[in-house]
Amino acid sequence: MAASPHTVSSRLLTGWVGGCVWYLERRALQESPHTFMHLFRSVSKQWITFQHLTFLRRMYVTQLNRSLNQQVKRKPEPVASPFLEKTPLGQAKAEICEMRPLPPPSLPLPRKPNEKELLELESASIIDSSLDAEKETKEEKHWKEMKLHLDDLPGVLARLSKIKLTALVVSTTSAGFALAPGPFDWPCFLLTSLGTGLASCAANSINQFFEVPFDSNMNRTKNRPLVRGQISPLLAVTFATCCAVPGVALLTWGVNPLTGALGVFNIFLYTCCYTPLKRISIANTWVGAVVGAVPPVMGWTAATGSLDAGAFLLGGILYSWQFPHFNALSWGLREDYSRGGYCMMSVTHPALCRRVALRHCLALIGLSAAAPALHVTTWTFPVISLPINLYISYLGFRFYRDADRKSSRKLFFCSLWHLPLLLLLMLTCKRPPGASGAGGEPRS
């Protein structure tokens, strides 16, 4: 029978030392099973925890793949690298040279974006567009001096001289020259037209030079060359001088001194009286009407060399025509004129603006009737011009009664074709050269 460890320890050691050894042996035998079980439980807990985490990771990947609507693909088998095989050096180089490029990776299948993603994309696009718009507005507000190319110079100078208004001035001058009694002198006609056009270009250029700070506040005039910085003020003044000097010289020495004096007077009246008066008083409209009435008088004096009743009649027709034309135009630009600081009838005295337009529409009927009495046209002219004069008078009455933008626009567009048609009718009804004049004597 085997002896127990207690008897072995008691046999080997006796006394106090033997008792200590016996206690330690007993303590070790009692705690060894518990320690082993504790270690086993801790290992098993760690294994269960790792297995649980692996399961959760697989579930997450599966759910994610389902949400993205992706199809599960087999993992491609690894291609054995030729470098791991024990092959000769030459054969390995040949295999490397013969290796084909790998196919491009397959793209994932398209998926439908969620509502949240769409909202995020829309908000991002809106933010980007707003930022771009802010940048564009900042760049537009920032003043930049524009470089002038030689090819753009004719167009810039044409806008500086208000080429359309200059063409109207030359056409009314030509009408005055053609309606004057006497033979038609072509060289004198060409010199008169050229001189009047140069004088008009000079007056319009100086007008824009003075009104740069005010034109920049108006939508109608903010794109003028001096406002945009396309040309310098020195160049504008130089261009005006180069137009005024030869223009006045042609009218004075090429035509006659009276026509040249009228040209100088009109340049002074437009640049030194009408332009500054636009910011002071509504009387600028009447002064501007006188400026527009002078060109046909210049045409008459260029042909006759004198101021006759026919010259004042033509001047009166142009004077009255400008009130319905300009008052109707300024009615639709009241906000622009007030923003620019101009004192216009349509802004400060709207009722007077409409009354004056109607009065001068009716005055055109009386002036047309006076043309044969002053021996400018035949008596046919008042009859055939009555319909168009009555029509513009009717539109003037509508403008006076309604006082709205629609009636003003109709009156303005009617004035654009009324004046050319009226002058054309006067030319067709011109009194023949052999008819008796105002004093009863035949004109040569």
Automatic annotation (TrEMBL):
UniProt cross-references to Pfam families, sorted A to Z: UbiA
Molecular function GO terms recorded: protoheme IX farnesyltransferase activity
Transmembrane segments: 231-252, 258-277, 284-303, 379-399, 411-428
EC number(s) reported in the record: 2.5.1.-
Entry membrane topology: Multi-pass membrane protein
Cleavable signal peptide: none
Similarity-based family: Belongs to the ubiA prenyltransferase family.
PANTHER family tied to this protein: PROTOHEME IX FARNESYLTRANSFERASE, MITOCHONDRIAL (PTHR43448)
Name of the protein in question: Protoheme IX farnesyltransferase, mitochondrial
Naturally occurring in which organism (per UniProt): Ursus maritimus
